[in-house]
């Protein structure tokens, strides 16, 4: 039982980060139809910027805020100078642009920061809490709480404000949204900003546990993408469910089966889900029109 | 000019011409190596382009087949005592078999779901290659014995330049023939609309599986050559970044253009070599160039330029 709880918590912690990355994918996909493979770099930027600002003597909370602001700025720049000029291009072309951006950001991080691993201090120390025989880092709870707050805030914002409704309208039908007077270009830019902020926050929260370096973004983007697809691309709830599920899958297969092959197990399960539900867990089938 | 680019066998003529002409301007033997790398990657990229550009199916795990081909020529001679040339074919056969088995379920998925499934597949191959250290040497990789053909050891960049060029020419010819065959037209129908192709009597599932197997064989042979040329391989060869690189070559050169595949491979193999002088700024520059190309030439280098030339012609 203690073992089970241990795996459960480590799975949920990692899963929360995947969920946030997947949420970033979903937001941008809904607004623009683009799969933004630079999503993982926002996580890296959040963690690395906080680390280096803190090293420079900036108080930690301020460093974290500045890191989020920096990530948002980069997200907006990415939209303005890479996505906007390519408006109307093929999906694959747009994906390649975001991959180019991700290579660029990784390269820039390597120059601006360095190539080593860095950590941040834990918010509530490193003494593990004992819950039912399992040892749980307080930071794990911070990550889970932070992720929950982010998801709830996002939901309130999207569901309860006029601006949020404009985002939903853009996601539902871009042309119709334009016809009722919504500036869909702004909505896409906005989705990049929010996704960047979410990614950066995830990076800051999880850095004390998993460490960060200039190249952590690739794997996170890959996992976040898989999580978003597992839940059903385009569904915010699906992204959260997919992320948590992927984290749990990895933790349990690492614990009970083989730590070497945890990713293989996770992907086999994802494939199995696709065969039964080709649109992901929460997705609905679309009919192709000829 | 536009007609020259569009004509059917232009890419084949171009390969032969370029392969023969390049050595005349190579200032040092080092360039043979880069030339060989371009040809080898072009081979894999053509295979992937058949799948992506003609049949319209994405694969984010094609480096997995590169890995199978590469490890076939490493493991076969080292652990099983098989001759290297045989292992190239064995690797291709194994890749074809894997593609056939994996492709049946995977190719039923569409769009981004197919992307994730192929991504997962590539990842699995890389993980197996990393973890089965007894056979593969683990993350450090293993060395690859030399290829001996009819008592002639194929050794050095120069020899591989010619072997790769010859194989690429064959690969291009086969691809061009496939595109122009009824199967090729069926694939393009699938690309335009799967439902419409089905209604027209195209056996969609079989055609997709077929081109997936073919593209796997192309990648596998390229992987074998890459391993033999370098003399050492690591699981990175089958990794996610490699798969992305292959896709980038296809898209950069132009989806659905064989000529584009050659250009795409050329650009993305030569660029990093040219950029190594910039040391730390290499990745930044590479990222910027990829972004710039895709923004300015959004349909890929060759189709965009071809269209521009055609537009200017009277």
Mean pLDDT of chain B: 87
Give the CATH topology of chain A.
ABC transporter involved in vitamin B12 uptake, BtuC
From the alpha carbons, calculate the radius of gyration of chain A and give it in angstroms: 19 Å
Strand order of the main beta sheet of chain A, please? 1-2
**What's the SSE pattern of chain B?**
HHHHHHHEEEHHHHEHHHH
- Low-confidence runs of chain A: none
Biggest interface between chains: A-B, 44 and 49 residues
Oligomer: heterodimer
- End-to-end gap of chain B: 11 Å
- Describe the global form of chain B: globular
Number of beta strands of chain A: 2
Question: Biggest β-sheet of chain B: count, sense, barrel?
Answer: 2 strands, antiparallel
The secondary-structure element order of chain A is HHHHEEHHHHHHH
Helix content of chain A: over 70%
Number of distinct beta strands of chain B:
4
- Could you report the average pLDDT of chain A, rounded to the nearest whole number? 89
DSSP summary: helix tally of chain B: 15
């Amino acid at each position: 039982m203690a073992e089970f709880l241990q795996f459960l918590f480590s799975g949920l912690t990692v899963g929360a980060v995947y969920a946030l990355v997947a949420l970033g994918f979903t937001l941008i996909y809904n607004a623009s139809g683009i799969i933004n493979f630079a999503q993982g770099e926002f996580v890296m930027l959040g963690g690395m910027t906080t680390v280096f600002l803190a090293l420079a003597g900036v108080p930690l909370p301020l460093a974290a805020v500045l890191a989020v602001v920096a990530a948002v700025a980069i997200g907006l720049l990415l939209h303005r100078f890479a996505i906007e000029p390519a408006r109307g291009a093929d999906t694959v072309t747009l994906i390649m642009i975001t991959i180019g951006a991700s290579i660029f950001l990784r390269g820039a991080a390597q120059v601006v920061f360095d190539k080593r691993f860095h950590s941040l201090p834990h918010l509530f120390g490193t003494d593990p809490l004992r819950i039912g025989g399992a040892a749980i880092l307080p930071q794990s709870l911070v990550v889970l709480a932070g992720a929950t707050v982010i998801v709830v805030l996002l939901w309130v914002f999207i569901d309860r404000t006029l601006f949020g409704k404009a985002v939903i309208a853009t996601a539902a039908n871009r042309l119709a949204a334009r016809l009722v007077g919504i500036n869909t270009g702004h909505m896409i830019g906005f989705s990049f900003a929010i996704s960047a902020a979410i990614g950066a926050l995830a990076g800051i929260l999880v850095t004390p546990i998993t460490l960060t370096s200039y190249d952590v973004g690739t794997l996170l983007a890959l996992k976040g993408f898989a999580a978003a697809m597992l839940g059903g691309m385009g569904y915010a709830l699906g992204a959260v469910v997919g992320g948590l599920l992927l984290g749990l899958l990895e933790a349990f297969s690492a614990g009970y089966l083989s730590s070497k092959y945890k990713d293989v197990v996770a992907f086999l399960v994802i494939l199995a889900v696709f065969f039964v539900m080709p649109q992901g867990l929460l997705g609905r089938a679309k009919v192709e029109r000829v | 000019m536009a007609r020259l680019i569009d004509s059917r066998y232009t890419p084949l003529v171009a390969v032969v011409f370029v392969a023969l002409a390049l050595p005349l301007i190579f200032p040092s033997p080092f360039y043979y190596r880069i030339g060989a790398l371009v040809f080898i990657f072009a081979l894999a990229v053509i295979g992937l382009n058949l799948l992506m550009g003609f049949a319209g199916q994405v694969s984010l795990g094609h480096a997995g087949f590169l890995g199978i081909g590469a490890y076939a020529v490493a493991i076969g001679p080292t652990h099983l005592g098989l001759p290297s040339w045989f292992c190239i074919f064995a690797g291709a056969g194994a890749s074809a078999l894997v593609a056939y088995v994996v492709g049946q379920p995977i190719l039923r998925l569409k769009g981004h779901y197919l992307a994730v499934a192929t991504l997962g597949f590539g990842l699995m191959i890389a993980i197996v290659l990393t973890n089965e250290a007894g056979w593969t040497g683990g993350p450090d990789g293993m060395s690859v014995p030399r290829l001996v053909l009819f008592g002639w050891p194929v050794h050095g960049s120069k020899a591989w330049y010619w072997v790769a060029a010859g194989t690429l020419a064959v690969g291009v010819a086969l691809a061009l023939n496939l595109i122009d065959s009824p199967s090729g037209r069926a694939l393009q129908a699938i690309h335009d609309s799967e439902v419409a192709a089905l209604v027209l009597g195209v056996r969609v599932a079989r055609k997709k599986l077929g081109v997936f197997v073919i593209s796997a064989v192309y990648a596998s042979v390229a992987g074998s050559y890459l391993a033999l040329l370098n003399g050492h391989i690591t699981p990175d060869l089958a990794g996610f970044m490699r798969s992305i690189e292959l896709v980038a070559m296809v898209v950069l050169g132009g989806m659905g253009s064989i000529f584009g595949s050659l250009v795409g491979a050329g650009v993305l193999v030569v660029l990093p070599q040219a950029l190594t002088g910039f040391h730390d700024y290499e990745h930044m520059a590479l990222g910027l160039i990829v972004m710039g190309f895709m923004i300015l030439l959004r349909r890929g280098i060759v189709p965009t330029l071809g269209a521009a030339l055609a537009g200017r012609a009277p």
